[in-house]
Amino acid sequence: MTRADAVAAVRNPLAFIAARWTPDPRTVRRAALAALVMSVVIVVTGGAVRLTGSGLGCPTWPKCTEDSINNTAEMGIHGYIEFGNRLLTYVLCAAVGWAIIAARSQKPYRRSLTRLGWTQFWVVMGNAVLGGIVVLVGLNPYTVAAHFLLSSALIAVATVMWQRTREGDTEPRPLVGKAVQQLVWVLVAASVLLIAVGTVVTGAGPHAGDSSEVERMPLDWESVSKLHAVLAWIVVTLTFALWFVLKAVDAPKGPPARTRDLFLILLAQGAVGYIQYFTDLPEVLVGLHMFGSCLVWIAVLRVLLSLRERPVTDPAVPAPALTDRLEPASG
Q1: 3-state SS class at 112
Q2: What is the residue-averaged pLDDT of the chain?
Q3: How buried is residue 308: exposed, middle or buried, by Cβ count under 10 Å (0-12/13-18/19+)?
Q4: What pLDDT score was predicted for residue 328?
Q5: What is the pLDDT of residues 208-226, one digit of tens each?
Q6: Which of 69, 193, 218, 228 is least surrounded, with the fewest CB atoms within 10 Å of its CB?
């Protein structure tokens, strides 16, 4: 490596790597999928922290204690669980970083795909800071809810990037009519409301995330749970109606298939939800319900993304030269 190469690598490492490596399209897709999987894993493990009462296993942030960056043996199992979840954030960062590098190195260069990777990075950084605030304010339920909603935003961006790795950069061509598109957007809005109310159920419910006295949302937990169930049935009904509409208009096989997948996931999620409600919220089922929430959200987004296509026919887009100035983080 020459001195000029070393300087270029320091100034713009992504461009340096891209100039010397062209990943296979499957590699880019797998990198995007890895980032999506980790965005779900971090939600599930965060739920495990809460359900085991380990939310304050590390009582401060960014260190685990005032004197140690990691947990100590005296902190017991709760310290290991909480610190382990913090370490998984680095694994998530590595997965997102791998997705960014793979997208940046793809030929032809796709700025839109790279930006989706950088968007994930900044959402992860923002949620890490918010997670620290959650600890510093003693698991305030409103900050905990915001933490989960930001994680849902990360899953949304990761899902879009995963989908975009299998598409071109041409203008999207709709596969269904405007009325069907509007119905799907209503489904998306109802799903967002369903997830948001789910965080309120958690914030008002018995799983506070720590064995000590933790503030709860001043709402009747059972009433909010019933509202959550009503919204779930609305989402199920909209999904069922959408499937019939797609069949009636003889839509391409993609949208009906994604809608069917969503309907099956909703049924499974609903079954878990009702079982946990009538069995006094066992921790295992609550954790499974959180995982199901992630799957429902991904499935809803896949329905939305299936309504259009972007053929891979766009011309090559020139990549920034290796000697360019350092790219902005958003690019």
Answers
A1: helix
A2: 90
A3: middle
A4: 41
A5: 888 778 889 999 988 999 9
A6: 218
Predicted confidence (pLDDT) per residue in 176-217, tens digit: 999 999 999 999 999 999 999 999 999 998 888 887 788 899
Return d(Cα 159, Cα 181) in angstroms, integer. Answer: 19
End-to-end CA distance of the chain: 26
Q: Give the residues across from 54 on adjacent strands.
A: 210
Tens of pLDDT, residue by residue over 107-156, are 999 999 999 999 999 999 999 999 999 999 999 999 999 999 999 999 99
Phi-psi region at 21: left, alpha or beta (left = phi > 0; alpha = psi -120 to 50) = beta
Tell me the β-bridge partners of 308: 174
Of 143, 142, 125, 126, give the one whose Cα is nearest residue 134: 143
Confidence (pLDDT) at 20: 87
In whole angstroms, give the CA distance from residue 258 to residue 269.
16
Q: Is-contact 284 243, C-beta < 8 A?
A: no
Tokens of residue 304, six digits: 């939305």
Amino acid at 41: V
Predicted pLDDT at 13: 84
**Distance from C-alpha of 49 to C-alpha of 32, rounded to nearest angstrom:** 26
d(CA 44, CA 155): 12
CA dist 235 to 221, 229, 258, 267, 275, Å?
21, 10, 15, 11, 19
pLDDT at residue 324, as a whole number: 39
Could you give the CA distance from residue 74 to residue 83 in angstroms, rounded to a whole number? Answer: 13
User: How long is the chain?
Assistant: 331
| pLDDT score for 18 | 86
DSSP string, 17-28: HHHH----HHHH
Strands (E), the chain: 173-174, 308-309
φ, ψ of residue 310 to 5 degrees: the values are -130, 95
Q: What is the DSSP secondary structure assignment for residue 66, as one 8-state letter?
A: S
pTM of the model: 0.90
> Quick check: 307 and 180 in contact, CB under 8 A?
yes
**Spatial distance between the Cα atoms of 67 and 93, rounded to a whole number of angstroms:** 25
